[in-house]
Every structure is written in structure tokens, then in C-alpha cells.
Design a protein that fits this description.
It contains 7 helices and 11 strands. With 321 residues, it is an alpha+beta fold.
Length: 321
């Protein structure tokens, strides 16, 4: 059984620029790994008020640092926190803020509110510091690594008995062994103007994101008129994102939305290739298992959106594949 103080070997890369554009897996631990943020019972995470407070400050990071994107996958465990941060290219206020500055702000703000909770609400006190002075970070190399880390975050409560931050752990998690295998520096970025970047993807530009958001909003409105009941929008899984999930009659429908500004490169729906279709089917399987959906009719639809000359067109293709 691990005994505190126990120092985990940091995966931090020497001489690596942690303000580089890319994706980073971050772990922050409570001092002495005290379980001040909740508990795990039979694989189910039960966050207390302090844990919910920590989650709120994590969600506020994007407002403080406009250059970053917080991934949908994060978890407040009883004595530590896991999250993924995407850093964008430098330029403008707070742009290019190093990862250390971002995490330190998160730790400072959550510590201040925890102190208030101790005084006003009787939260368990801590000695000296709430968080450990340092934090653990991992530079995410590619999409495969991103998916594995997202899966680990999503299932962290189920793996609590193997968690090396758990002082009563009864074994070792193979994820930790996998994470420790990364020694070399990441390869150069395929994205223009972002050498030696850390992550598997460049966050989409605001223009591209606005186009996608506008297309999904238009698709949702058109589907509702056709009798669809939207259940989920941008449902994130460890393997990727499902644009829309809806009920239509007796069917549970997984919907891929494709938006283009012109037909120069073909119809939007042409972008849903066989490889893309196979991936969507895997995402649907994940959703069905995660939600414990019983026997149900499943359908895959595609919505093609075209914005051109201040006009928009919507084509709904049922049973697309």
C-alpha cells in the first residue's frame, strides 16, 4: 500500500515549451492525498460541495484565458483532479499563457473558495496548502492517445481501487504503465505556425466553429419540424463526438451534420465516407452501452447544410447508412 509522502515520477519533458499549441493531460492532487472532495462508493463518484466548487473553477478557465479550450472530459476525484487543456496559438490578451500559469490560477481560486467554505460551512480544514505545490502533466501526442486518456477520465471512478492517487489502492492500473512509456519529445506539428506542438489537434478557428454551430442549429430546427425530439447535442465520447441524438417515432436516431459554404467540393453529405460511417456506429454503440439502453430500433441519419449567397438549404437523409 502506498504511504505518503510518495513522489510520482513526473512525465514533464525537459526543455519543452509548455506554452506550445496542443493538448495536455493535467492532474492536480490534494496535499497528502486527503479525500476532501468527495468519495467513491462501488465505482460511483459522490462529489461533495468542495468537489463541485473545484469543478466550477475548472469550467471558468476559458473565461480567464481565451487562448485555451477545456475538453468535455474531466473528473473531480476524492483527492485529485484530471482534465485536458487545449492551448491555441499565441496572440492577443492572455494568448499563449503557459500551462503552469493556467493551473496555478485554478489552484489559487479554488483554494480561496475552499478556505471560505471552511470558515462559513464547516468544510474539513487543511494544513498549509490545499493542493500539492506541483502538478502532473502529459503532452498528448495523437488522436489515439487522446481517446485513451478520455476513456480513463470517464472511467476513473470505476478504477478507484487501482488509482495510484488512492492511498488504499489494491493494485496497479495498466493506464499508468502506458502513460509512463512516453519519454520522447512530441513530433513537430502538422499545423501551420505551431512547431513542436503538444497535442493531436489544433482547435478549430472561430469562423469554422461558427459555421459548424450554425449548421447544427439549423439542422436541429429542421428536424424538430419533422417530428424529431432532440435528446443530445454534441454528445462527447472517448472516441469522438456525436452531433445530434434524437427520437423519431420508435427509432433512436444518431445524426451526423455536415455544413458547407458551397457545393464546389460536392454535397455536404458526401463527406460522410464509409470510414466516417463506421466511426459513427462505434460512437453509437458507446452511447447505447453508457446509457444502458435496452432493445431499441436504431437509425443513422445525415443532414446536409449549405450556406450560399445568404441562403441556406437543408437536406435530411434518413437511413443514410
Amino acid at each position: 500500500m502506498p504511504v505518503w509522502p510518495w513522489r510520482r515520477k513526473s512525465p514533464r519533458l525537459e526543455e519543452y515549451d509548455y506554452s506550445s499549441e496542443g493538448a495536455y493531460f493535467v492532474t492536480v492532487c490534494i496535499q497528502k492525498r486527503e479525500c476532501l472532495l468527495g468519495r467513491v462508493a462501488e465505482g460511483i463518484l459522490q462529489s461533495n460541495d468542495a468537489g463541485k466548487m473545484v469543478e466550477r473553477w475548472w469550467q471558468k478557465l476559458e473565461n480567464k484565458f481565451p487562448s485555451i479550450k477545456i475538453d468535455s472530459f474531466y473528473v473531480v476525484m476524492p483527492n485529485h483532479f484530471h482534465g485536458i487543456v487545449f492551448l491555441r496559438a499565441a496572440g492577443g490578451a492572455h494568448m499563449g499563457a503557459p500551462l503552469q500559469k493556467i493551473v496555478q490560477w485554478f489552484k489559487t481560486m479554488s483554494t480561496n473558495e475552499y478556505i471560505h467554505g471552511v470558515k462559513e460551512y464547516g468544510w474539513p480544514p487543511f494544513k498549509e496548502k490545499l493542493w500539492q505545490r506541483s502538478f502532473y502533466d502529459h503532452v498528448i501526442r495523437n488522436e489515439e492517445s487522446l481517446s485513451r486518456i478520455r476513456e480513463y477520465i470517464a472511467t476513473n471512478p470505476l478504477r478507484w481501487d487501482l488509482d495510484r492517487e488512492n492511498l488504499q489502492a489494491r493494485g496497479k492500473d495498466d493506464f499508468d504503465g502506458w502513460l509512463d512509456t512516453f519519454k520522447a519529445r512530441p513530433q513537430s506539428s502538422p499545423c501551420r505556425g505551431a512547431p513542436s506542438r503538444g497535442g493531436p489537434m489544433c482547435p478549430p478557428s472561430d469562423d469554422r466553429r461558427q459555421l459548424g454551430d450554425a449548421g447544427e442549429a439549423l439542422a436541429a430546427a429542421a428536424l424538430k419540424k419533422q417530428g424529431y425530439k432532440i435528446l443530445e447535442r454534441n454528445y462527447v465520447t472517448p472516441l469522438g463526438e456525436i452531433d445530434l441524438i434524437a427520437r423519431h417515432g420508435r427509432a433512436l436516431v444518431f445524426i451526423e451534420v455536415k455544413t458547407r459554404r458551397s457545393l464546389r467540393f460536392g454535397e455536404p453529405q458526401d463527406a460522410v465516407t464509409p470510414a466516417k460511417q463506421a466511426r459513427i456506429q462505434k460512437l453509437a454503440d458507446y452511447y447505447l452501452q453508457r446509457k444502458r439502453v435496452g432493445e431499441v430500433e436504431v437509425r443513422f441519419d445525415v443532414v446536409g447544410i449549405t450556406f450560399s449567397d445568404n441562403r441556406s438549404s437543408v437536406e435530411i437523409i434518413q437511413n443514410a447508412f
